[in-house]
Design the sequence.
């Protein structure tokens, strides 16, 4: 059975893989919307997200979603309409790693490897599904590895709250039991809209 440290390492790998497959973020990095250090900013985003899960007593979907939205805006001058779906994937991945279930992480990593092996292609038109988008595939069960909780309808009972800081690293298993309920991940259009705002990303 995997140790707690191994669970954390796999979770960190999963977070990185999700972000590397997030179209909105990768467009910002590839086009240097955050300036010459756009790649470093993406890595900093990954590290801050992992730290959020490590130190918070309880992490809420809205908290992760707001962080993703604010980071894209502050550092890349852009936004994405699917930051909610990314937040749901990360919360579910954290819960599963806490339960020593690494199916979602491994499938996400395998999906990334599969995408790298494919030749470059054009970006889908707005409103069209991207067959390689991580959130689209997970929502359709391609990379979910048993994410049955994401088939539940999203009610108006969204969790919110700040969650207190904890001086000791938070164990995934403890936080997993408190994870916010996962909403339905399939948006009406199945694709995020990425818009570049005027001005350069801030350092």
Sequence:
């Amino acid at each position: 059975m995997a140790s707690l440290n191994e669970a954390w390492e796999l979770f960190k790998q999963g977070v990185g893989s999700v972000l590397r497959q997030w179209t909105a973020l990768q467009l910002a990095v590839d086009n240097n919307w955050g300036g010459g250090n756009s790649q470093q900013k993406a890595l900093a985003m990954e590290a801050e997200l992992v730290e959020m899960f490590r130190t918070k007593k309880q992490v809420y979907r809205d908290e992760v979603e707001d962080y993703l939205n604010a980071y894209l805006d502050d550092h890349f001058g852009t936004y994405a309409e699917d930051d909610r779906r990314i937040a749901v994937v990360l919360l579910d991945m954290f819960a599963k790693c806490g339960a020593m279930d690494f199916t979602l992480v491994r499938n996400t990593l395998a999906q990334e490897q599969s995408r790298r092996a494919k030749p470059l292609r054009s970006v889908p038109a707005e409103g069209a599904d991207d067959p390689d988008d991580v959130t689209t595939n997970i929502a359709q069960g391609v990379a979910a590895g048993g994410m049955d909780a994401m088939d539940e309808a999203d009610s108006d009972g969204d969790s919110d709250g700040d969650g207190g800081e904890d001086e000791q690293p938070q164990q995934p298993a403890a936080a997993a039991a408190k994870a916010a309920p996962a909403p339905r991940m399939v948006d009406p259009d199945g694709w995020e809209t990425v818009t570049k705002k005027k001005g350069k990303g801030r350092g």
Residues 124 and 130 are 6 Å apart (CA to CA). Helices lie at 4-20, 23-30, 38-55, 61-76, 83-98, 103-117, 134-139, 172-176.
